[in-house]
């Protein structure tokens, strides 16, 4: 009975380590497999204090620690900032692994896929569970490359906190902004880790300023570096006024000493640290009333008397409130600064208990017959709509549908596509199966059938994305497939209003199907991927009730394949002006008539191709700036600004996606491999008439 049906969006669960593991279970299994020679299959609890003899209570807390002792966190950053290297060190110091893996040697735990190891990049998020000083940490290492943004998004939804890793010589980079925005959207408290402090050009102050300016965040400087670049050897803990120095002779960074700063031995550093601590106390007091009362009352005369724990508790509160972000620094590659980062994770990031997930109070997995479990926002909405149709009470429906929206993942539209063919027709079902599985795992991969050729078409987020999918089909499903040329996913729109009328009159058997439709298509200003559908007052409500779904299906199917290139039509509104349906006409016929009528209207309209415009950021040394700019000019690039970032120039601008295919190879050649770039879809822009007609001729095979 529908009144008892409930809808759960539960594709990502959280709270326990088991749940996080479910998100990326294949990856964990593979990690454990690789670790077999070193680690017994099961968790290494060596770092947990309190497990004595047969103490059942302790044992229970080891197996399932109280929620207050759990941290579900993610590591996120721009590509190559050092997430995987930092994760690798974290696993080593926590006792999860017994040797240090290296991205450059292709032997890290979290980058286990063959493609990740070969390319030294993270493609799929990996979850690992380990313990640190009595806390259970469930950690996800996420990819930095923009092609795998969805992977980051799906992880952020299950996290309670995140560590944002930065390359200290570059500060905030293009993809940092993207992941930061995603974390803002999911309201994830964060800690910043300024990595690569050992690298030439590393600058703590520059990186902190870039967090303030570009991310519009309030950095809380909890550490100061001791030395920078080649001279980097440790950090000062601003909260406790202690210095942490790593033993230069230790090759794994386990050995470091923590000493209070003294006037006698470190007068300068002590002075700097006291200033930084006072500034930190004032900053936190500004953000937290409880702490302000404490500081102004008892400690206003001398901040030195304020116990570190009081400051730490207040920092925890402002981190949780996301009014500021603690900033730490180190060098994961040189094994410095990672243990204090782990302490900060347990100290400042929240436990699951401290986070409020409204939709999770819905989702307690006590399901019963009649419940609906859905896997995405669109299926949640479809289920909610179905529930609505079948008569649930109005107020309950609305609030439920709204809450379900919280649980969805936003999947960006793909910008590239290409055909994919199996080695033989007999293998088509195997290919379909592989693509179905891969799509389930990675919803940003879309698969469709070309209605004209019957070919399977892969749609993805970028060249790398499609390349990796191709490779995975070969390695994981044993299928050698053939990819057609990579093509840009264009869109279409119309430039003027057009009207059409159509009648469909067909008799099948002894049944007459008769529909007459009049509709109008017009351009709209607001960017809308799906057509806006409106009904004129003259259309009878009763008629509409019975046929609305069929009408909308007809409209949507036409808008998926525009008349120019067969690309989706966007920024249009369709108004149904009149509708006449003969009794007994099937909904299929209604859909067919609406589709035909809309196609007729679109044929008459002035049409425009829209092309994906990419935001581009190229980081290049001064010597190579000119060739990079000259090349971008040839690619119809529009340069917005050129910033100076340490010793580099950063070119920021826009370039049509069609012009930037294979850019990594060209850029490597132009700059002897010294430049890096990041691309992100900015919007869809109208092509100029000349480029549009060239494109149309190419597609029609005339050039
Ligand atoms: N100098 C220096 N290099 C580092 C440091 N940490 C990482 N690297 C190097 O930076 C490169 C990228 O490191 P990764 O750990 O793969 O970075 P990532 O952020 O996981 O990369 P993606 O997942 O592909 O985005 C590798 O060559 C590392 O050796 C560091 O602290 N100092």
Helix content percent band:
25-40%
Provide mean pLDDT, rounded. Answer: 81
Strands across the major sheet, in which order? 3-4-2-5-6-12-7
* Structural class by helix and strand composition: alpha/beta
What best-fitting shape do the alpha-carbon axes yield? elongated
**Gap from first CA to last CA:** 61 Å
Poorly predicted regions are 1-61, 392-398, 400-407
Beta fraction: 15-25%
For the CA atoms, what is the radius of gyration? 29 Å
Small ligands present: guanosine-5'-triphosphate
Give the helix tally.
Answer: 22
Give a short account of the largest sheet. 7 strands, mixed
Number of beta strands: 27
What would you note in describing this structure?
By secondary structure, this protein is α/β, with parallel strands linked by helices. Helices cover 36% and strands 24% of the residues. The strands form six sheets. A seven-stranded mixed sheet has the order 3-4-2-5-6-12-7, sandwiched between helices. Strands 14, 15, 16, 17 and 18 form a five-stranded antiparallel sheet that branches. Strand 25 (638-645) and strand 26 (648-656) form a beta hairpin. Helix 9 (267-287) packs across helix 11 (308-320). Residues 1-61, 392-398 and 400-407 have low confidence and may be disordered. The protein binds guanosine-5'-triphosphate (GTP). Guanosine-5'-triphosphate (GTP) binds next to helix 4.
């Amino acid at each position: 009975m529908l009144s008892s049906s409930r809808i759960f969006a539960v594709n990502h669960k959280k709270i326990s380590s088991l749940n996080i593991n479910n998100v990326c279970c294949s990856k964990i299994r593979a990690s454990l497999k690789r670790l077999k020679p070193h680690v017994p299959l099961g968790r290494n609890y060596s770092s947990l204090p309190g497990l004595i003899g047969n103490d059942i209570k302790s044992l229970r807390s080891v197996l399932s620690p109280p929620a207050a002792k759990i941290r579900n966190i993610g590591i996120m950053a721009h590509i190559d900032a050092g997430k995987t290297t930092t994760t690798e060190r974290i696993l080593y110091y926590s006792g999860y692994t017994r040797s240090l893996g290296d991205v450059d040697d292709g032997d890290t735990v979290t980058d286990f896929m063959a493609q990740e190891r070969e390319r030294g990049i993270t493609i799929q998020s990996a979850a690992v569970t380990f313990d640190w000083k009595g806390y259970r940490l469930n950690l996800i290492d996420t990819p930095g490359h923009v092609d795998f943004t969805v992977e980051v998004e799906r992880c952020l939804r299950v996290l309670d906190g995140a560590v944002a890793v930065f390359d200290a010589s570059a500060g905030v980079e293009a993809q940092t902004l993207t992941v930061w925005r995603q974390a803002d959207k999911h309201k994830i408290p964060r800690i910043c880790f300024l990595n690569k402090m050992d690298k030439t050009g590393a600058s703590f102050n520059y990186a902190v300023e870039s967090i303030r300016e570009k991310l519009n965040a309030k950095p809380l400087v909890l550490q100061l570096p001791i030395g920078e670049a080649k001279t980097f050897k440790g950090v000062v803990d601003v909260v406790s006024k202690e210095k942490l120095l790593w033993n230069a002779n230790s090759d794994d960074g386990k050995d470091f000493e923590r000493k209070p700063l003294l006037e006698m031995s470190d007068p300068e550093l002590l002075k700097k640290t006291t200033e930084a601590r006072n500034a930190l106390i004032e900053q936190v007091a500004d953000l937290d009333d409880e702490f302000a009362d404490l500081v102004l009352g008892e400690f206003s005369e001398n901040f030195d008397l304020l116990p570190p724990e009081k400051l730490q508790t207040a920092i925890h509160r402002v981190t949780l409130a996301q009014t500021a972000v603690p900033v730490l620094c180190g060098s994961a590659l040189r094994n410095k600064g990672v243990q204090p980062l782990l302490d900060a994770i347990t100290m400042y990031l929240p436990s699951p208990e401290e986070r409020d997930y409204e939709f999770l109070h819905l989702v307690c997995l006590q399901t019963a017959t009649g419940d609906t479990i859905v896997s995405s926002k669109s299926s949640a909405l479809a289920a909610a709509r179905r529930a609505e149709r079948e008569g649930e009470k109005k107020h309950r429906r609305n609030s439920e549908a709204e809450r379900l929206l919280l649980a969805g993942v936003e999947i960006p539209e793909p910008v590239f596509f290409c055909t994919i063919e199996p080695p033989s027709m007999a293998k088509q079902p195997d290919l379909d199966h592989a693509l179905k599985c891969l799509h389930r795992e990675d919803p940003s991969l879309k698969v469709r059938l070309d209605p004209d050729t019957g070919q399977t078409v892969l749609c993805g987020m970028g060249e790398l994305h499609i390349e990796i999918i191709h490779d995975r089909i070969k390695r994981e499903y044993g299928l050698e497939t053939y990819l057609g040329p990579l093509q840009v996913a264009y869109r279409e729109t119309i430039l003027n209003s057009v009207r059409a009328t159509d009648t469909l009159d067909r008799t099948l058997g002894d049944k007459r199907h008769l529909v007459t439709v009049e509709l109008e298509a017009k351009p709209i200003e607001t960017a809308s991927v799906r057509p806006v559908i409106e009904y004129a007052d003259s259309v009878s409500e009763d008629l509409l009730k019975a046929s609305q779904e069929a009408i909308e299906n007809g409209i949507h199917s036409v808008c998926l394949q525009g008349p120019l290139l067969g690309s989706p039509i966007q920024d249009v509104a369709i108004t149904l002006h009149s509708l006449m349906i003969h009794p007994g006409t099937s909904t299929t016929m209604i859909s067919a008539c609406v589709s035909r009528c809309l196609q007729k209207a679109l044929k008459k309209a002035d049409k425009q191709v829209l092309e994906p415009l990419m935001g581009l950021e190229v980081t290049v040394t001064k010597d190579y700036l000119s060739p990079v700019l000259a090349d971008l000019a040839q690619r119809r690039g529009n340069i917005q600004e050129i910033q100076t970032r340490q010793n580099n120039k950063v070119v920021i601008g826009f370039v049509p996606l069609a012009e930037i295919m294979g850019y990594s190879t060209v850029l490597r050649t132009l700059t002897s491999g010294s430049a890096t770039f990041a691309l992100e879809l900015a919007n869809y822009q109208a092509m100029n008439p000349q480029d549009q007609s060239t494109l149309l001729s190419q597609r029609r095979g005339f050039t």
